[in-house]
Amino acid sequence: MLEVKQVSKLYENQRGVRHIDFAMSRGEIVGFLGPNGAGKTTTMRMITGYLNPTHGTITIDGLSMADHPKKARQKIGYLPETPPLYPEMSVRAYLQFIADLRGIPVREQKQRIGGVIERLGLEGRERQIIRSLSKGYKQRIGLAQAILHNPDLLVLDEPTSGLDPKQIIEIRQLIRELGENHTVLLSTHILPEINTLCNRVLIINQGSIVLDGQPNQLANTMGETFEVSLEVKGPREAVLAELRGTPGVGSVRELAGEPTVASALAAEPTASADAEAAEPAAVVFAEGETVKVVVASTDKTDIRETLFYRMADKRYPIVSMKKESLSLEDIFLKLTTNEALDSAAADASPTPEEEEAVPHA
């Protein structure tokens, strides 16, 4: 449905995007994430035809945005971060105006407008002046204009911004329904929204795509080790020694709730040439015989069964065991920190050919 192939947008005095490359199929809802200034808005504006790329091609349902811009735009519904509204118009007059712009046949306009008004909960507001509406209702009108012509591709930039919790639930449900027959590219800063709505996520940083995958598989892809949190009943020092001596265990990190004064002192690192002693001293827990730890394997191997039999053999009952995984927030921060991407930024410098094509102010 959408193909973005090696697309770059270069500027003389500011960062653009470089070599953006991805495709979307009909029925996909794809979350588009990135920190401020990463290139999300620039990419969406190129997809919707508001900006021309410096290099690369964008194809909508087989139509090139460069060769057939008008036909390609007819297949797109776009909700920018600030909805494109005329504040002096009434809700119905505005939607009538959009219907005319979109070339919707006159005989269909009444039914189409009535349909989106009902779908977006705008009943009773049809004659109200847009200027007098709340931000939430303005956001709904912005979404109404995006779906009025029944587009194949929806590009939504922060669609739930400014909505109350009830409205957010309703808009999310609408996006799910639209995703059954449409392709949806959804930009949002609400990371749980990605898990709720999207079957795929793209993360962009410093003008390049740094991740493309399914939300429920990202943790396994990004994790370098297998981690499990344990609560074990037994003598603290003995339990820790057994865990650290278990084959396949790379590290054991204790977890504490509210440390006592004694535990805070014990947590200070000790000066020793020995690498083992150089680690922070273990925390003394008020729970007494219960030890809470996070155990990491030396690689991605699942060590839960090994830990179970090791503790059972020593008669140290495991009170609880839970696999740890990176959250979407953890993955996002890991991929968008400057330290992790210094080399990527260096590689993203324009080639001589690209520099020649950079537009000058």
Automatic annotation (TrEMBL):
Annotated ABC transporter domain residues: 2-231
SMART domains referenced in this protein's UniProt entry, alphabetically: AAA
Coiled-coil regions, chain positions: none
Entries under InterPro entries matching the protein: AAA+_ATPase (IPR003593), ABC_transporter-like_ATP-bd (IPR003439), P-loop_NTPase (IPR027417)
Lineage: Bacteria, Bacillati, Bacillota, Bacilli, Bacillales
CDD domains: ABC_DR_subfamily_A
Protein name, UniProt field: Multidrug ABC transporter ATP-binding protein
Family membership noted in the UniProt record: Belongs to the ABC transporter superfamily.
Transmembrane regions: none
Sorted UniProt keywords: ATP-binding, Nucleotide-binding, Transport
Feature: compositional bias, Acidic residues: 352-361
Annotated GO MF terms: ATP binding; ATP hydrolysis activity
Pfam families, per database record: ABC_tran
Residue span of region Disordered: 342-361
PROSITE patterns linked to this entry: ABC_TRANSPORTER_2
